[in-house]
Amino acid sequence: METDANGMKAPVQPVLRVSGLSKSYRRKGAVWQRTDDVIVAASEVEFEIFAGQTLALVGSSGSGKSTVARCVIRLEKPDAGKIWLEGTDISQLDSRELRSLQPKMQMVFQDAATSMNPRFTAAEVIEEPMRIQRQGDKSARRTRAKELMQEVGLSPQWADRYALDFSGGQRQRLAIARALALKPKLLVLDEALSGLDLSTEAQIANLLVDLQAAHSLAYLLISHDLALVTRIADTIAVMAHGKIVEQGPAAQVIASAGHPETRTLIVSTRAAQANLFALGAAL
Amino acid sequence: MNLPDDNSVETLARVDSLSVTYLPDSDQPVRALDHASLEIRPGELVGILGESGSGKSTLAAALLRLLPTDARYDSGTIRFRDRDLLSLSESALRRIRGAEIALIPQDPALALNPVIRVGDQIAEVLRAHVHMTRRDRRTRVEELLAEVGFDQPRQIYTAYPHQLSGGQRQRVVIAQAVACRPQLVIADEATSKLDASLQAEIIALMREISQRHRMAFIVISHDPTVLAGFVDRIAVMYAGRIVEEGRTEDIFRRPLHPYTQALVRLSARYLTNAGSRTRFAAIDGEPPNLTSPGIGCPFAPRCPERMQVCTDRELEETTPQLSQRVSCFKYGN
């Protein structure tokens, strides 16, 4: 990851660097048990993401990828390890200290509907983070919200519509507009493309690619869909049982598939596609 | 393929020009189904492909007469074997549901009662429809559990839903659906919450059951890859209409409707172009608002091959290829 596509020297400092990240959860044992079960959700996780780059964290359900995302965005406090956001270690900061750093990193969830206040209009959804961070006055925030709607492909004329009256794809655009409101450097996209219709998924993937190019955003993309992330990620990190078992440039990980877990993911992706091949689908 | 070629004129179920409108209290009426027609033959596997809001689940619910109370059947008929489903009483319908037409829902976690052992929940279906002793029922449920792939049906019988994995719960729900050997099973996005390898297992299981008992399946999905290895025929839905229907290989090899063509292209997820950040060939725009359907083709605003006529005249279905019907002005009309 020394150079970007144009052969230019990439910035030396990554937007995000994670090192030795570990997190385990304690599941309360039954009353007759003396000890609690300890579930290691993430263990010694290491990676870095530069501006304008995407790292895809892939793995089957339960592999620990969402735990890593939640630690990075600091919804969880890691047990060990460091998380540097533009050079500042945020792994142990308390919530008050985190507040000033929050504009730099934002998260987009799978289910946009549950991440929005149902009483909010589209504009209010986008304005909320600016309001919390006390950015601009009311009219400046409204202007910015409309700009953002335009940028993510929503008509600014819909600013006063309730967020829940939008379709699934439009709500995901709204969630992305909200995430962009504070001009972040890093977006954590936790299955943000899952559960959408095919045509919507492709639209949102294209939107993310365009926004990344326009704003040099760094993406941490959490997904179970290897085929989808392969096209839009620069780096793929494969997770299994809380560990990153393979990591490298997307093309290389797909081509060499050094770890059994990677091969399993590739085989199941190909198996799903095999039927299309067999039918000689018109592509 | 298990098309019943020996008696291909025989029909199990026939939906004819069915239109359904939802009439919510506080909102405008929504035309969810618009003159949809579909025929299912005994033992046949038919796929319904469509994105959210296309009407595919409304069609499935209509076949079970399970539409919500704010839905109105505007026109059309639904025949199942020799009966007219739209004129049957609720008690007659209850004898059909589960026994002759069964449903495999999307989310088994919601379909199963969390505080009842899964074996008893399968037995309950048998108790409602089949006259048999308690002991026979227990044996029968264990056989069903074995049929859907459990090595130790006795242990599974006494398990509670939360003790099973997602894939195991889906198998239990399948056992429940096929318990009374219905002639028609409707699988509504039955594999869409499972990961790729589990999805393949569950599809293989449903195919096997269909073939063994000559059960017809209607498989509803938004994902063309699911249907590709599963069904004999596919009906593509858009904005409450069936816009194209044909044999599975024809739908994938020579899709006629521009919407089907775009969906087939999008479903091809080869592990190529890694790291290229190439844009996807997306379909621009959004499906139309079904509260005020306009004239002509509902896909026209998003269609790359739109012509003047598309929004000027009402569409009619044509059959440009043998056993493949389409609603598109490109093919006459």
Topology, pairings included?
The complex is a heterodimer of chains A (283) and B (333).
Chain A: E1 16-27, E2 37-49, E3 54-58, H1 65-72, E4 80-85, E5 88-89, H2 95-99, E6 105-108, H3 122-132, H4 138-151, H5 168-180, E7 186-190, H6 198-215, E8 218-223, H7 226-232, E9 235-240, E10 243-249, H8 250-256, H9 260-279
Parallel strand pairs in A: 3-8, 3-9, 6-7, 7-8
Antiparallel strand pairs in A: 1-2, 1-4, 4-5, 9-10
Helix pairs in contact in A: 3-4, 3-5, 4-5, 5-6
Chain B: E1 13-22, E2 30-40, E3 45-49, H1 56-63, E4 71-80, E5 83-84, H2 90-96, E6 101-104, H3 108-111, H4 118-129, H5 134-147, H6 153-157, H7 166-178, E7 184-188, H8 196-213, E8 216-221, H9 224-228, E9 233-238, E10 241-247, H10 248-253, H11 258-267, E11 318-321, E12 324-326
Parallel strand pairs in B: 3-8, 3-9, 6-7, 7-8
Antiparallel strand pairs in B: 1-2, 1-4, 4-5, 9-10, 10-12, 11-12
Structural write-up:
The complex is a heterodimer of chains A (283) and B (333). Chain A is an alpha/beta fold. Helix content of chain A is 36%, strand content 23%. Chain A has one domain (16-279): Rossmann fold, CATH 3.40.50. Chain A has helices at residues 65-72, 95-99, 122-132, 138-151, 168-180, 198-215, 226-232, 250-256, 260-279, and strands spanning 16-27, 37-49, 54-58, 80-85, 88-89, 105-108, 186-190, 218-223, 235-240, 243-249. Chain A has a 6-stranded mixed sheet, with helices on both faces. Chain A has a 4-stranded antiparallel sheet with strand order 2-1-4-5. The radius of gyration of chain A is 20 Å and the shape is globular. The mean pLDDT of chain A is 89. With 333 residues, chain B is α/β, with parallel strands linked by helices. In chain B, 31% of the residues lie in helices and 22% in strands. Chain B has 11 helices and 12 strands. Chain B has helices at 56-63, 90-96, 108-111, 118-129, 134-147, 153-157, 166-178, 196-213, 224-228, 248-253, 258-267; strands at 13-22, 30-40, 45-49, 71-80, 83-84, 101-104, 184-188, 216-221, 233-238, 241-247, 318-321, 324-326. An 8-stranded mixed sheet of chain B has the order 6-7-8-3-9-10-12-11, with helices on both faces. In chain B, strands 2-1-4-5 form a 4-stranded antiparallel sheet, with helices on one face. In chain B, a hairpin with a 2-residue loop joins strand 9 (233-238) and strand 10 (241-247). The longest helix of chain B is centred in the middle third of the chain and has 18 residues, at 196-213. Chain B is globular and about 70 Å long. The two termini of chain B are 32 Å apart.
